[in-house]
Amino acid sequence: MVEPQSSTTGGGLIVTGSSRGIGAEICRLAAQRGWSVCVNYRNSHDEAAAVVDQIRTSGGVAVAVQADVSVEAEVSTMFDQVEQDLGPVKGLVNNAGVNGGGTRVDDLDADASRRVFEVNVLGTFLCAKYAVKRMAKRHGGSGGVIVNVSSAASKHGGPGTYTDYAASKGAIDTFTVGLAKEQAEEGIRVNCLRPGATMTELSVDWAQQNPQWLDWVIEQIPMRRPAQVEEVARAAIFLLSDDSSYVTGATLDVCGGWVSP
Fold first, then answer.
1. In the 3-class helix/strand/coil scheme, how is the chain assigned residue by residue?
2. Which of 62, 190, 231, 240 has CB 3.0 to 4.6 Å from 52, enough for a Cys bridge?
3. Which of 41, 130, 162, 165 is catalytic?
4. Is 12-198+229-251 a domain of CATH 3.40.50.720?
5. What is the pLDDT of residues 152-178, one digit of tens each?
6. What is the pTM (predicted TM-score) of this model?
7. Is-catalytic flag, 41?
């Protein structure tokens, strides 16, 4: 009989793009549950430092590390620094993402769309690569867990505004399945978290400026409200925890029924 893999909670956890929003809340909750957390950011140093301060004030362990996830050298350096500061990396949440130009396809800006795929897809692949090199048994690791953050847009398509973003998240859905099957025997679980409309700081600002957007969103959601960041973060914590020890290659929709089967 194959024994369950050892607990991952309490190791080093990297959450990319986590200076605010869902990523920041994942960091705060994970620290409460014993993870030593890396708050990754690209430009938002002050916001990332504030998340670290919140975690440390509450008795947790956290560091802020700058890295553009689409640049391999920066990803490699980030993982090295986290190992030095927090110990072995046992968890990764691929949360970093950009939305694109917000246009129809016929008005698409190629440079903006290229950036979407560089960050959302290539960045996820690169971070997974360096996580696997540390977690996989074949590389001397003892296992770990990866959570890829997708979007309900991968199923509804983002028509009229962000089809490039939606397509990039569709790639993440597929990547999750392939990586999970590839790494299962290496002791690494890989799952996908698929949020819908969530009231992050950016969403709150956008809704205030465009109230018709929020009205439209609510009409799409059977629960008739958007998610709060902590609701999505709690789902991520479940996928990171030993409560999901026999779950890999799965997608957890946290979208109020918007795109759920």
1. CCCCCCCCCCCEEEECCCCCHHHHHHHHHHHHCCCEEEEEECCCHHHHHHHHHHHHHCCCEEEEEECCCCCHHHHHHHHHHHHHHHCCEEEEEECCCCCCCCECHHHCCHHHHHHHHHHHHHHHHHHHHHHHHHHCHHHCCCCEEEEEECCCHHHHCCCCCEHHHHHHHHHHHHHHHHHHHHHHHHCEEEEEEEECCECCHHHHHHHHHCHHHHHHHHHHCCCCCCECHHHHHHHHHHHHCHHHCCCCCCEEEECCCCCCC
2. 62
3. 165
4. yes
5. 989 888 888 889 999 999 999 999 999
6. 0.92
7. no
